[in-house]
Design brief:
The chain has 14 helices and 32 strands. The protein starts with 7 loop residues before the first strand and ends with a helix. It is an alpha+beta fold. It folds into 5 domains: 179 residues, 3-Layer(aba) Sandwich (Rossmann fold), CATH 3.40.50.300; 85 residues, Beta Barrel (Elongation Factor Tu (Ef-tu), domain 3), CATH 2.40.30; 72 residues, Elongation Factor G (Translational Gtpase), domain 3 (Alpha-Beta Plaits, 2-Layer Sandwich), CATH 3.30.70.870; 106 residues, 2-Layer Sandwich (Alpha-Beta Plaits), CATH 3.30.70; 112 residues, Alpha-Beta Plaits, CATH 3.30.70. Its EC number is 3.6.5.n1. This is Elongation factor 4. One of its GO terms (molecular function) is translation elongation factor activity. Its main location: membrane.
């Protein structure tokens, strides 16, 4: 028996990082009795170790709650807890498409932050009804009246009836549930129409195979039914249907407005494309639902095993991670310095860091990552345009007409005292200021910045300048032509492909000097001199030399003619010259890693 539509509510929880989304989800689960006191853990929906350790949500999670409201009716609440970090915004967009409303959580002591804005605008784009919730009102620094006004001024939504609560202590949790029931709209749908369900997410379970998260819009999903993926064109038979309460619970069918999971002997996650429309094979829907735009990787870097023998293990590990993270892309590449590895695409630096950490943790791999780079568009003299993921593959400069790089629109919220340093940081990174306004005592500054200046360590620098108080959010705006050049690092006249990068001509010398100075400290002395150079084309822009180790060949000469010593020293010099011609320079792995991390100046 399917639940009447009027008693279903589908909603997401959106907020900035650390404003208490996952803790609020815990309290809602506890309040509705979905888990007993003994089964409750902190951040019950964050089921990855890395999520618990870092205190962030990476994967959006869904849970079905049953709530008996004040009017005596029992409501089905489908809750989606979403990530707050900018790198996982695609998880947020998918969750929002499956819901009709959102709870906007704002920290009553911190107020509106950059990511609050980004996520709310996404919810408004999806025509969501929004219930503002002021969390952490038990803190001594909480100022609910000021934050209410801020929500109205900055976001432009009515916050006069915002619910006040404390997810930590449990104050006001029933008010939040009542607001969800009273103020969010029920879903629409026709149980007799042809089946139309949205594929929201898919992941690999070692026991069940591919598990697909679906939101039914029209029709009914039943166990044993043959379904068709409209985009892929593949057909499957449903084995299991169920919901997460948060424990997996099997059902016989899912009706319109409901969110649940199905398994259907799908062999690979790649066959369950996120955003696809599921319909009945015999009675197909005429038009598919509007899906999601393809997720585009923003940052690329090469991942190589420290021990070349681990390459096959790396290939298997990356393949398995890809099963649960559709936004991560990879292809094989080779490097003269590092051997075989993969060129991987990520949605941002945090995403890159999380994937690297999961590879080393879950699969015990020692990895080297090359310098992160963005996707450049190269316009050739013959009129063709190519995408460049790896600076080492830059075509012959004679054939290039222009190089364009991605620019982002960055929104930064900061307390007033750090504003000067933040503006200087943005100007140093070739930023263009677009607007500067004040929200209470905090400044909101909007900059256009080239993405390749941001991917290295912009976020870390911003946090250290502002002692962690500034918040940062960005979205890619456009590609702009720039005066970009390829900078190569030569060690003993041999180019090291893993260290080549595209830089703006004005910053090339500074970047090159920093790089060679760092390499000089890291390469151990050999028996011969080693020149380390930064070059643009055939022009050397910076150089350092690693001094040679020297054996004392004149030790056995004492007294006698000075020409004997001279002859021995000249012979040694000749030997060193020959050695330098044929000698191989061993660059230790730590040198690569440290050189790639250098950019803190």
């Amino acid at each position: 028996m399917t639940t009447p539509l009027s008693r279903i509510r589908n909603f997401s929880i959106v907020a900035h990082i650390d404003h208490g989304k996952s803790t609020l989800s815990d309290r809602l689960i506890q309040e509705t009795g979905a888990l007993t006191q003994r089964e409750m853990t902190e951040q019950v929906l964050d089921n990855m170790d890395i999520e618990r350790e870092r205190g962030i949500t990476i994967k959006a999670q869904t849970v079905r709650l049953e709530y008996k409201a004040k009017d005596g009716e029992t409501y089905i609440l489908n809750l989606m807890d979403t990530p707050g970090h900018v790198d996982f915004a695609y998880e947020v967009s998918r969750s929002l498409a499956a819901c009709e409303g959102s709870i906007l959580v704002v920290d009553a002591s911190q107020g509106v932050e950059a990511q609050t804005l980004a996520n709310v605008y996404q919810a408004i784009d999806n025509n969501h009804e929004i219930v503002p919730v002021l969390n952490k009102i038990d803190l001594p620094a909480a100022e609910p009246a000021r934050v209410r006004q801020q929500i109205e001024d900055v976001i432009g939504i009515d916050a006069s009836d915002a619910v006040e609560c404390s997810a930590k202590t449990g104050i006001g949790i029933r008010d939040v549930l009542e607001a969800v029931v009273e103020r969010l709209p029920p879903p629409k749908g026709d149980p007799d129409a042809p089946l139309k369900a949205l594929l929201v997410d898919a992941w690999y379970d070692p026991y069940l195979g591919v598990v697909v998260l679906v939101r039914v819009f029209d029709g009914t999903l039943k166990a044993g039914q043959r379904i068709r993926m409209m985009q892929q064109g593949a057909t499957y038979q449903i084995d299991k249907i169920g919901v997460f309460k948060p424990k997996r619970t099997d059902l016989n069918e899912l009706g319109p407005g409901e969110i649940g999971f199905i398994t259907a002997q799908i062999k690979e996650v790649a066959h369950a494309a996120v955003g696809d429309t599921i319909t009945d094979e015999r009675r197909q829907a005429e038009t598919p639902l509007a899906g999601f735009r393809e997720v585009q990787p923003v940052v690329f870097c090469g991942l190589f095993p420290v021990d070349a023998a681990e390459f096959e293990d790396l290939r298997a590990a990356i393949g398995r991670l890809r099963l649960n993270d559709a936004s991560f892309t990879y292809e094989m590449e080779t490097s003269a310095a590092l051997g075989f590895g993969f060129r991987c695409g990520f949605l941002g630096l945090l995403h890159l860091e999380i994937i690297q950490e999961r590879l080393s943790r879950e699969f015990n791999l020692d990895l080297i990552a090359t310098a992160p780079s963005v996707v450049y568009k190269i316009k050739m003299t013959d009129g063709t345009v190519i995408d460049l993921h790896n600076p080492a593959d830059l075509p012959d400069p004679v054939k290039i007409e222009s190089i364009s790089e991605p620019w982002i629109k960055a929104t930064i919220f900061t307390p007033d005292e750090y504003l000067g340093s933040i503006i200087k940081l943005c100007q140093d990174r070739r930023g263009e200021q677009k607007e500067l306004s004040y929200v209470g005592a905090r400044a909101m500054v909007v900059y256009d910045l080239p993405l390749n200046e941001v991917v290295f360590d912009f976020y870390d620098r911003l946090k250290s300048i502002s002692k962690g108080y500034a918040s940062f959010d960005y979205n890619i705006e456009e590609y702009r032509e720039g005066d970009l050049v390829k900078m190569s690092i030569l060690v003993n006249a041999e180019p090291v492909d893993a260290l080549s990068m595209l830089v703006h001509r004005n910053r090339a010398e500074m970047r090159g000097r920093g790089m060679v100075e760092k390499m000089k400290e890291l390469i151990p002395p050999h028996m011969f001199q080693i020149p380390i150079q930064a070059a643009i084309g055939g022009r050397i822009i910076a150089r350092e030399t690693v001094r040679a180790l020297r054996k004392d060949v004149t030790a056995k000469c004492y007294g006698g003619d000075a020409s004997r010593k001279r002859k021995l020293l000249d012979k040694q010099k000749e030997g060193k010259k020959r050695m330098r011609q044929f000698g191989k320079v061993e660059i230790p792995q730590e040198a690569f890693i440290a050189a790639l991390k250098m950019d803190a100046d």
